[in-house]
Amino acid sequence: MTLDNFVVALNSIFGSFGGPLVVVLFYWFRFHTLKGTRSFTTRPLFAFGVAVFITPFLAAYALLPHKLSPLATIWLLIFIWIIPIVPKWWRGFCHELAGIPVSALALRDTLAASPFQVPASDMPILQRKLSRIGYQIDDFRAVQSTAIQSRFLKISALMLHLERCAGQREGFMERNADLHAELLAVYDTLCFRTVRVLKSSGEIYGAIMEDSEVEPNDWQALDSLSTRHSTVSQLQLAAQTAAGCMLEDLRKDMDSLLNNLLLFATRAALAGEWTLADSKRRLGAIGFTLDPSSPGILKFVAIVAAFTSGWCLLWLLGSGKIVHLPGDQTVGMLRTLLTTPLQFIVNFSLVYHFKRHYAFANESIFGRLPVGFILSIGVVSALIVFPVQATFDLYQFPERSFGDVVLHELPLLIFPWGIGAMTALLVQDSTWGRRSRQTRRIRDGLVFGAGMTVMLWMLLTIHQFVHMPVMEIVDSVAGWRFMASFVLPTFAFGFIVGYAMIGRLREAAARCPVKRPVLAAPVLAGA
Question: Are 55 and 345 in contact (CB under 8 A)?
Fold first, then answer.
């Protein structure tokens, strides 16, 4: 069977979706650049990133001339990947939208800085395991070994947790069995090395104390030995220095292994749970004390999408007898229901992402607004919305020249640009100074409502000089009907969005995680 026949067979099974299915599968594999890419972020964010990454290629499949065969269209879209820079940049941008690998790295750093206490139920198990290698948890209580012991107990608790996950045959552990085996081998080596170093250093310090008639655990007296200039004192000082170097080298190796164990445990939690909050609860069961996670952008965007879609549906139902959509009625209704939420989803997501991760999207240290970001973020949004708008132009006005319709509809991009600019302005922390929360929310609503109304009047003015097919919707509406059907709903819609959504977006975008921490290799130096 040739590839062309295979595509035809797919189309016969999946209708007209056989070709797009091949495109989706190809770019699905292109999205995965790391082993276990999925485990570096939460499931919803990963799905969002994949969807954004694949959407332009599916849109291109729909916009390509129908004269091309499905196989030719597929090959053309596959060859797009060999274009220098652009496809790779787009994948990197979608990875950042999905939080790959920033989500896992930020959570790992949170674990490293959080308090840790071995659960009481795990302590007997750890005592039995460590006693087999000659390590007693109650031993080595001296000041020098406290840091070693705390690290060693944390590492042992993490390994116990990973062994339980492997015993439950979790998918992440099975897919990364080689990395788990490598970590386990390094841990086994570290266990025996820890006992050997602690016992050796303990014997060295004990011999020095006994020979110098220093009381046990009198570390100040031990340090005073370094001020003596006898041959014996110099030998004792050299031995003390050697013991300290052994402990320091052991601590560094423990930190290296702990760094990789924290990342591995974080990835296992993200891969096994749906949300960041569930992942934190799972890591908290190991013994970490973690603050509850703040609501992510995905839930916020879902609320915005649901509200805007519901508002558009109510507007279509309420104004059905007054307003008549131009062109194909069904496509026009679908356009209203989809493009309006899309503009807010894209703008809110972009502003949230750039303000959290890039300094140019925030005020300067002198409090000056990032004017360039405010004016340009809407341009990025308009470029993303434009292919969707052009697609609806094609199907809503099939009897008209596609090029003319798209060209005359370009002023409609004022809305995504204006929404992006208003959002970028209002989410700045110092926009309303130290006003009360209620005052800031009211002002957000007034600005957003007034901005939406101004953009509507701007489109009406442009429509008087450049005929826009979509704006034919207002040609047969005049007087108070226009105010009741367009102006008042537009202001009310903008006011509600600004009042209810902008404040939450401003607070969420103010929390800035580490952009790209160094990803260490899971190998101990000198272990």
Answer: no
